[in-house]
Amino acid sequence: MSLVAEYKVGCRHLPLVDVAAAVPDAALRVDVGQPNQGGPPPFAVRAAAEFEAVERAFDESAFVSEYSVVGRTGDIRRYAVTPAFTMTEQFGDAVDDLARLKTLAANESVVDYIRVVADGWVQKRRFADRDAFDEYCAFWRENASFSLHRLATDDADATPAATTGPDLTDRQREALRTAHEMGYFEVPRGASLSEVAEELGISPPSLSERLRRGSAALVEDAIPVGHLKALTR
């Protein structure tokens, strides 16, 4: 029976982790394409904020050979990124068995999403069976770290309620949680924007932006795009 797993691989050698570390509010998501004539596969990268900082980080990243903007939608920008390294060059001595890693990369699992964070990748992946999942997580536990967030059968996951989760950065999550705990969202408010910002040690405009982007991510995750369009007609 196929399995759906949501987990985090903690490995700073994974592609674009240096970019996420440099721009933690960017909420980077990536799709990995097919290798072109034996070269490294292209990456499609989605950024939700801090575009100028993201592009500076691309320029400074050893992983990025070149990049281009391929789409703009509201607060989202999409990039095509060409890697500078093959898998072998990227990981080098960071893993014990590159051949085993390549085998895992070529298995029949299907990636639903990859979110790049400052110390690794958060992923949702569909595995053909339990053996394939066990082999995958064993490799990363031996070579880096592997934290399982959720594991379910494919049938259990195939419900309308199953989602990949909102595109919240750690800072947006912290801002929303703190604002909620301090009563900022209550009527009447239990705390002002300035009071919440002071608690977090940031400026009110910075807090306002994090709350706005975080709230937008929660709404987009909770209400499908088609439903949003219908509600606005």
Question: What would your notes on this structure say?
Answer:
This protein is of the alpha+beta class. It folds into 2 domains: 3-152; 170-231, no CATH class. The chain contains 10 helices and 8 strands. It has helices spanning 17-22, 51-60, 87-91, 98-105, 130-143, 154-157, 170-181, 193-200, 204-222, 225-231, and strands spanning 3-10, 28-32, 43-47, 64-73, 76-83, 110-117, 120-127, 145-153. The chain has an 8-stranded antiparallel sheet. α7 packs across α9 and α8 packs across α9 (204-222). The longest helix has 19 residues, at 204-222. The protein starts with a strand and ends with a helix. Residues 158-164 and 225-233 have low confidence and may be disordered.
Order of adjacent strands in the largest pleated sheet: 4-5-3-2-6-7-1-8
Described by strand count, sense and barrel closure, the largest sheet is:
8 strands, antiparallel
Order of helices and strands: EHEEHEEHHEEHEHHHHH
Radius of gyration over C-alpha positions, nearest whole angstrom:
19 Å
What's the pLDDT, averaged over the residues?
Answer: 82
Q: How much helicity do the residues have?
A: 25-40%
Please tally the β strands and state the result.
8
How many separate domains?
A: 2
- Separation of the first and last Cα atoms: 43 Å
Strand content of the residues, in percent?
25-35%
What overall geometry do the principal axes of the alpha carbons give?
A: globular
Uncertain residue ranges: 158-164, 225-233
Structural class: alpha+beta
Count of helical segments?
Answer: 10
